[in-house]
Amino acid sequence: MTSVVTAPPPVFARRYRAMSVGMVALILLLAFEYLAVATAMPVVGRELNGYHLYGLAFSGGLAATVIATVVGGRWSDARGPRAPLWTGIAGFIAGLAVAGAAPTMEVFLAGRFLQGLGGGLFNVALYVLVAQVYPAEMHPRVFSLLAAAWVLPSVVGPAIAGFVAQNLSWRWVFLAVPVLAAPAAFVLWRGLPGGEPQVREAMGRAFLPRLAWGAMAAAGAALLQYGSGTTGTGLPLVIAGLAVLAFALPRLLPSGTLRAARGLPTVVALRGLAAGAFFAAEVFVPLTLTRVRGLDPAQAGVALTGGALAWSLGSWIQGRGRFGRVPVLRAGTTMIAAGITITALTVFHQVPVLVAFGGWVLAGLGMGMVYPTLSVLVLELSAPGEEGRNSASLGIGESVFSIVAVAITGALFAGFDGRTPVYLLCFALLVVMAGTGTLIAGRFEHARRAGTMEV
Asked: What are 231-240's contacts with CB under 8 Å, separation 24+?
């Protein structure tokens, strides 16, 4: 008898169309807001007389995201993803409204904190929803689509935000998004299948210690991020933040993550290493091109745009499912390391500046291959009822590894006054991070008991 392999339905097939469109629209808005805040913040700080609280606009929102990720994971596993999904969307919209209408910097910070809570809940619940609604064979294409949804905001988001902040008002950078988020949420609601899954269990007292560890990790991350951008008292804050994270983080991640134990711990470690290396290098690319090579910000931004477009291409390639997971992960992390290395060479004036653009495109292509592949694997390696917790661990690992990489390289750069050897040292540390990912890429595979599916 000849077996017939049926291809999975398209992501925008009639059955899944409304949900896919709603998810993509909300991710587009989430990505735009994430990228627009940095552009609008100088104007916000000036008009609200809040430069002394400037760093908290970023670290406070980040701390809220870490806490919400912990809560959202447990909430989604215990009660299903819908309640945290809608709570997260509502919190995100409410936070934007508070920030956009803020009369003082303190109120603006409260809005950013609420926005971070909403975004954290929404992201984790979305992973669990994908696991419940789409069949497993569709997951690579679904996550490829969600990764690609970041591309358009990466290309046009900062420019739009800058134009609005300068020519209209910075408040519309925040207030316009809720107007667009409401119809996107309605489309997503229309696409949800009928019937709420039964409650599996109560949240439980055991959840409270995990929440406490999450709050501690959030505080450590905020200290680290804030200290890396502060002169004078910055070093003690960085050290304190690292100490708090070293104590709290192992309690929030799968056992063995920090030593890349086989299976799920390696998936979480890989996401952290790849994202940390890429996002920290992304800080230095425009810095190198403007301060060392004399480009203006718009010209330097073309490199970041190229990386974003390459990320989309890499996501599309892995979504075709024609290559094994281990080769994709090894190739992707190798591309990130190689791309950062090539980009770093442009600190030497003898190297053509176009080399940086090519290097960053290569790094973006690698991230596009790695990022959605790990999103798929975290669901495949999760037992029923653990998707939320494990997706939360993936998000926490990504956030914290990225914060540590950005903070350490930023502190080195500031401490040694941005000399050329310091650029090279910072880039080298990030190449080591990505290269470590290449070395451990195959460790997500592990032996299964007889009769169970192999990964």
From this structure: 231/414, 234/411, 234/414, 235/411, 235/415, 238/407, 238/408, 238/411
Q: What is the pLDDT of residues 333-390, one digit of tens each?
A: 999 999 999 999 999 989 998 999 999 999 999 999 998 899 889 888 887 777 778 8
Q: State the Rg of the chain over Cα.
A: 21
CA end-to-end distance (rounded Å), the chain: 26
Considering only the top CATH level, what class is 12-189? mainly alpha
How many angstroms separate the CA atoms of 342 and 430, rounded? 12
* Overall pTM surpassing 0.85 (yes/no): no
Distance CA 52, CA 50 (A): 5
* Phi, psi dihedral angles at 229 (to 5 degrees): -105, 15
Q: Where are the domains of the chain?
A: 12-189, 256-448
Q: b/e map of 305-322 (b: 16 or more CB within 10 Å)? A: bbbbbbbbebbbbbbebe
In whole angstroms, give the CA distance from residue 150 to residue 163. Answer: 20
Are 349 and 359 within 8 A, CB to CB?
A: no
